[in-house]
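Work Package 4 report. The design task specified in the project plan requires that, given a folded chain encoded as structure tokens, an amino acid be chosen for each position. We show below one input record used in the internal validation round.
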């Protein structure tokens, strides 16, 4: 699958909740629910885990309260890195960096957990790289 980036820099194509991924591996929903709870502190019931991605025209997204999607749509930007207001308060609330998450855990986060539950959403460096490419 080709890389698919959300407005805030999440990698939809790597997210286990992304519709093509959940359709291939429906059994991953419970694992994803548990992983998000462990590393981000929220839980979505497995039966509700399916997302078209915020760039789709569908309203089937996991975060209907996301402040980034309507902002990026109204500004007609490809992603937040292309926005003149980068980094704004809306985006700040969505920034994820592995080192910040790791600080909350006594033991190292297993690489498999990082790749499944954290890496798809690690957007701090991804957006910064995109921003540098645009300058």
């Amino acid at each position: 699958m080709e890389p698919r980036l959300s407005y805030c820099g999440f990698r939809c194509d790597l997210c286990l909740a992304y519709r093509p991924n959940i359709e291939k591996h429906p059994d991953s929903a419970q694992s994803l629910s548990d992983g998000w709870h462990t590393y981000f502190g929220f839980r979505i019931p497995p039966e509700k885990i399916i997302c078209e991605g915020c760039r789709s025209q569908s309203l089937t997204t996991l975060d209907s309260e996301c402040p980034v999607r309507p902002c990026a749509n109204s500004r007609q930007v490809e992603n937040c890195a292309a926005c003149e207001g980068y980094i704004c308060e809306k985006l700040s609330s969505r920034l994820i960096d592995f080192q910040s998450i790791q600080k909350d855990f006594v033991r190292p986060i297993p690489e498999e957990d990082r790749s499944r539950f954290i890496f798809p959403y690690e957007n701090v460096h991804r957006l910064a790289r995109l921003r540098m490419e645009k300058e």
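Residues 12-134 form one domain. Validation will be extended to a larger panel in the next phase.
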